[in-house]
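The pair is quoted verbatim as follows:
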Amino acid sequence: MTSPHSPRGPAASEAPLPRHVAIIMDGNNRWAKARGLSGIRGHHAGVESVRAVIRRAAERGIETLTLFAFSSENWKRPPSEVNALMELFLMALQREVKKLHRHGIRLSVIGERNGFSASIQRHIASAEALTRDNTGLHLVIAANYGGRWDIACAARLLAERVAAGELEPEAIDEQALDDEVSLSGDAPVDLCIRTSGEQRISNFLLWQMAYAELHFTPVLWPDFDGEAFDRALADYQGRQRRFGMTDEQLEAQQGE
């Protein structure tokens, strides 16, 4: 199952791949429940899917891959699950970062870090410092992140600059806000994938996904692999991206 509108565009083999792919990794708990396992076992199983998608994204030449690991709303989950997720996050930072570095992958974490333990904050800073100069895939982990929070923080920074006399209110436009939100140096999201059959974006990268193509799949996250990622890319390549233009304008643009 994909986005409800009918794709119509160039042949997939000829169409460009997305520069920036964002994924809402959903379905870990349902995967575990279907197998009579605890929810955290589903989250552990999902780690292998993370590895598989990172490998495939790097192989396909994707510039930026952003994974929604933990939303600002996820703190509402049972304390036992939250604690287990924090332990899993810390373990991943301890065990996976050197592998990413060996493959030239740059790691960034976006979100409100003050909500995490001092240990997790230290490991995030260390991981980013280690991989800062890598030139391969830019892997972004959204943790304690919310799209509204992101936009509000950007607006606050601009307001502070106005109050300090550094910026005129008239100078605040879309580009000024874009420069302050997370991932301002990366391409906007071209493709957003959500697993498990849910069809919403759940406060994820609201600004950055303004023109993203949406791909919804019933596959639960622990079952999502490189082949499933390729299917999502092929679906994207079959879309015609209008950006507000008509068919005739697009055809004229492509014929230039």
